[in-house]
Predict the structure of Vacuolar calcium ion transporter.
Amino acid sequence: MWSRRSTFIRVETWAQALYSPSSSNIYHHARKAVAYGANPNLLLLFLPLGILGGTLRWNALLVFFFNLLAVIPLSALVSDASDKLSDSVGALLGSLINATFGNSVELTAGILAVVNGRVTIAQSIMIGSILSDILLVLGLCIFSASWGKNILLFNPTVADTLSSLMMIATMAIILPTVLASTLAVHHSQIEDRILSFSRGTAVILLILYITYLFFQMRTHKHLFEQAQHTRQDDPSQSTTQLASPLQKYAPIATLIASSIGVVVCTYFVFESMSSTAHITHMSTIFIAMILIPIASNSPEGSAVIAVSRSGDIDFGISVIVSSILQISLFAIPFLVILGWIIEEPITLDFGSFNTMILFFAVVIVSYMLREGRYTYIHGTMLVGFYAILTVAFYFR
C-alpha cells in the first residue's frame, strides 16, 4: 500500500505527463518502448510514391493508400520534432507548438475540408479522432496493461481529474447539437442560431485553452517543476548537444520538412477521397471518421500501448486525454473560427448519431475511470465497441 508521500509524488508525475508543456518525456519514453518492434519510418517508402502518384494522377485508390500510409511515419516525425523543439523554446511557446502540430493530420484535413466547403468531412475527422483515442487506443492500452494479471487499479486521483476534464471538454462540443434538437423555430432560424451559438462556444473554448496554458505556465507552475528537474535526459543527447550546435536546429528542420510532407500527403488523401469511396464502395464519412484518424493516431497510439504493457496505465490515460483536450479545446474551435473568417459556416452541430455515439463513449470511459478497477475484459469491450462503430459507419 502506498504511503501519502509516494502517492503524492505519483500524482505529480502523472499530472506533469498530462499538463507539461513539453511532452518529450512521454514521446521519448514511448519511442524507446517500441524501438524493438516494427519501425514506422519504413513506411516513408510510400512518401515518394504517394507524391508522384498524386502529381501524375495515378489510380485514385493507389494515390489514397500510398499517401495515407506515408502520413503514419510523417505524423510520428512531426510529434517527435515538436516535442524536442518545445524543450528549447520555453514553456508557453512549447505548449502552442505541441497543440498546433500534435494533431497535424486531423488539423490539415479539417482545414482542407472547411476551405473546400465540405463541413461534414471536417466534423467527421474531429469526432473520429476523439473516438479513436477514447475507445481504440485506450482499450488496447488497458488490454496490454492487464493481460495475464488479476484486477488492477487506476490511480484514483489521476482518474477522477482526467475523467472530469474529458467530460467537460466533450460536453461543450455536444451542447450545440442538443440545442438544435430543442429549438422549435423555422429551419433557417435554427441554422442561424446554431451557427452563432457555435461561434460563441468556439471562442469560449479557445479562451479556456489559453486559461489552461496560463494555469500550467504561471499560477501553478510549481506543481510541475519537481518532475521536470528530476527527469533523466536522453543519454544519446548528453554529449551531442554540447559537441554539435547543429542539433539545436535539427528539430526545426525536421518539423518543417515533416509538416510539409503531412500537408502534401493529406492534400492528396483528401483529393482522392471521393474517388476511393466510389471504387471501394466506402462512404467518405467512413474514410474521414475511421481511416484518417487511425492513420494519424497510430504512431502515438502504438507507443502508448507499448508503455502500458509494463503496467503504466495511468501514463497512457494521461496521454490519451491530453490528445482529446487538444482536439476539443483547440482543433475544433479553430476550425469553427476559420470558417467564420472565410465565411464558410461550420457549426458544432455534429448530428444526432455522431453526438450520441460520442456521449455514450465518454460516459462509458468516465464511469470506468471513476470505478478505479480494470481487467483485460474492459479493454476488450472498448475495442469491441469501436469495431461495432466501424461496421456501423461502413454501412451507414
Remarks:
- Strands lie at 152-153, 373-374.
- The chain has one domain: 22-395.
- The longest strand covers residues 152-153.
